[in-house]
Design brief:
Blueprint lengths: L13 H8 L3 E11 L3 E12 L2 E12 L1
Antiparallel strand pairs: 1-2, 2-3
Length: about 60
């Protein structure tokens, strides 16, 4: 005897599923490193955009020789 009640199913579109599962995002990053006789310099950039907003960051590192 099966005591579980019937289960009702529903259709969900791809767009609705994307909204439930986190949506779409795109990102990019880049870096630059320069070595001179005096110092080493490194710079990094990062950006991510999604339906929830934009995040961006940058870092610069320098070391004297």
């Amino acid at each position: 005897m099966n005591l579980a009640g019937p289960v009702e199913t529903a259709e969900i579109s791809d767009t609705d599923l994307d909204d439930v599962s986190g949506g779409h995002a795109v990102g990019g990053f880049g870096g630059l490193s320069v070595e001179t006789p005096i110092a080493d310099v490194c710079a990094d950039l990062m950006a991510v955009a999604s339906t929830e907003g934009l995040t961006a960051g940058a870092d610069v590192h320098a070391a004297a020789l």
